[in-house]
Give the backbone structure.
Amino acid sequence: MSTETSPRGSAPGAGVAATDVAVVDHTAAADRRAERMRLLAQPVLVLLLTGGVLAWAFSRDLNATQQASISVANLATLTWQHVLITVAVVVIVVALAVPLGTLLTRPGWTRLAPVFVGIANIGAAAPAIGLLVLFYLATRTTGFWIGVLPIAFYSLLPVLRNTILGYQQVDPTLIDAGRGQGMSARTVLRRVEFPMAVPYILAGLRTSLVLAVGTATLCFLVSAGGLGVLIDTGYKLRDNVTLVVGAVLAVSLALLVDWLGALAEVYLGPKGLR
Amino acid sequence: MTDTASRKGTAAHHDHTHGVEIVLDDVVKRYPGQVDAAVDHVSMTIPAGETVVFVGPSGCGKTTTMRMINRLIEPSSGRITIGGKDALSIDPDQLRRGIGYSIQQAGLFPHLTVAKNVATVPGLIGWDRKHIAERTDEMLDLVGLDPDTYRDRYPRQLSGGQQQRVGVARALAADPPVLLMDEPFGAVDPITRGLLQDELMRLQSELGKTIVFVTHDFNEAVKLGDRIAVLGSQSHIMQYDTPEAILANPANDMVAGFVGADASLKQLTLSRVRDVRLIECPTAHEDGSVDEMRRALLARRRQWGLILDARNRPVRWVSPAHLATVDSLRDVGDPVGEILSVQSTLQDALEALLAESSASTVVTGRRGEYVGLITIDTLVENLRQLRDEHADDHDDLSDPGPSALDEPGGAQRAPEELAP
């Protein structure tokens, strides 16, 4: 899986020669069209999938256990747990990876970057289920945070890598222009470097979101809830209806989260770079 | 020949901060782990309100030298004063807010609008919103961009030349006395570059800032500089003088190589037609007497005269042959081709003479009235005079000591001589 996600389209580099601009614009325009189509189609697909699977499940004769797991209340609770896990993971990832990535690109700290990227790489390379189980074995407890923390570690890398990449791709002449006009290093960071890195950070965030929402289905292992509970129940009881509902809802939620990530990329990035 | 002040005009506009003097005193930049200093004991005085161009081969340290003035690079030793104040004693960020800075490819912030880019330094020094907005519009106006059209655009929506203009507007926004420009026009096409250079000269004649301009293009240096510092390796000053003096008498082989084989042609761009002695030819109005004109022509070695219209504008050339068979000066003779204005450079004059393949070209004044004729001899004489003037500018080439550089060539230049 590629973790160095590049931001949507092509960031207009200041150094692009005039002759290249037309070509870049052309492909960028095509990319933008495809992206717009996806932005429209994806929520429709989510609605169809969710509506379809629920209509299918509720129109069947459900036995008592099925009625317990596929009740509106239970589905809502599990989905809400799933969302909470994802949100908690993403908040931790952003709160950790963005400041860390910023620090690791400051003069004097760059030498430490490979160490932290290496650690994050281990988190990303290890199977999520392994991390969950190891963390459970290490703490001998279960619950929300025992699910959230290993997943946060697992999805840290994309944001960290992209934050570093985002700062590295800032044209040094812009930093020079900022300093040369009397901005302090901190002001240049806040007003020039960070805004320029935001599209990259958002692209990394979207990848992390998708990782988090996907691996959150494993949280049932440590009793942290989530839609994985349905899949687990369906599997253990050989109850295909519950299994299908759990799986399809997990897929829909992942698509929805990815769509939100895409929206964030489009609307939260600096306007001049779009 | 021409005085620098009259050529480029250094009159300060009363609304603007006039430039201040910059003095580099024995400045050295040494990077750790390198045997040779990047900038080795450089001393020079950059006079207030003048444009000084650092020119030299790449890697000679000219940019390093310039960047030490606003301390983007800290000197290893030496002193730099700007307007009498020690630059090294001021907080670098504060120092830089008082020095305009314009770089190659403009260095505009792509995520900010044109207006926000221009407002960078005023924002940093805490002007109020209204003042900043007014100033931004004024600056865009100054560099020839309509504020209503361009204010809210993003840099990527501008052409290279427009970006560069915004870059200059941004550098000037807080009205600094000093402007540092690091190859600002290096990345635009030659035509746009020419326009931007003209624009900068126009701005400078209004503003009278002290400008330090770095380039590797000697033609650009000749065009823009009141003075040129030709720098060799380790930023050693090979020659620091007016463009006229450098072209007329390069201090050494390296400078001569940099000036190039066409020094005389470049020299011609520095003088204007109004600065040289024009010659006269017989003239007559269209309703004048044919006989008188014929006599005037035959009385002189020059066999051609000019017919002028009612407003003294040259219309046609006539020779005695034309006049032999006519009884009116109307509709007689050959139409006048190329016409030069007194504002034209001597290079334009040469071009006109070659294009016409004639011995002389008509010069007209502001309203198109006849002023005189310029000939190839006029140009040759002009160059000879310049060389004579600068012949002994630097008898001692081996030691470009600080004292010689403090008064770069100014003392021995003769006043302008126009009339015979």
Summary: The CA atoms of residues 248 and 386 of chain B lie 6 Å apart. The two ends of chain B are 14 Å apart (CA to CA). The first helix of chain B runs from residue 4 to 8. Residues 1-14, 397-420 of chain B have pLDDT under 50 and may be disordered.
